[in-house]
Amino acid sequence: MPRITFINANGTQTEVEAKIGESVMRAALDHGVEGLSAECGGCLSCATCHAYVGEDWVERLPEPSEEEKVMVECAIDVRATSRLTCQIEVTDDMDGLTVEIPASQY
Predict the structure, then answer these.
(1) Is the pTM of this model over 0.85?
(2) CATH topology of domain 3-105
């Protein structure tokens, strides 16, 4: 199983083993990672699972859909590495992915 490291705004890191096919958001929620409220449950109708992927991962992940791009703009403190974690499906290639949760999510 791929290992994903979540970094909270205070610098605390939590490494989890994610299941292939689940979303990065689901992996975080299932392991008690704080900061992602995921109010819509992954339906792409809010931005409460917004996070920053590691810069070295931006080009390695699938491109966000147009719908995700629009919804990300609703988040606070959007950056070039901003993604909605509900829209990133875990694959074997994601071992070592880092995801930083913005302070605005708390």
Answers:
(1) yes
(2) Ubiquitin-like (UB roll) (3.10.20)
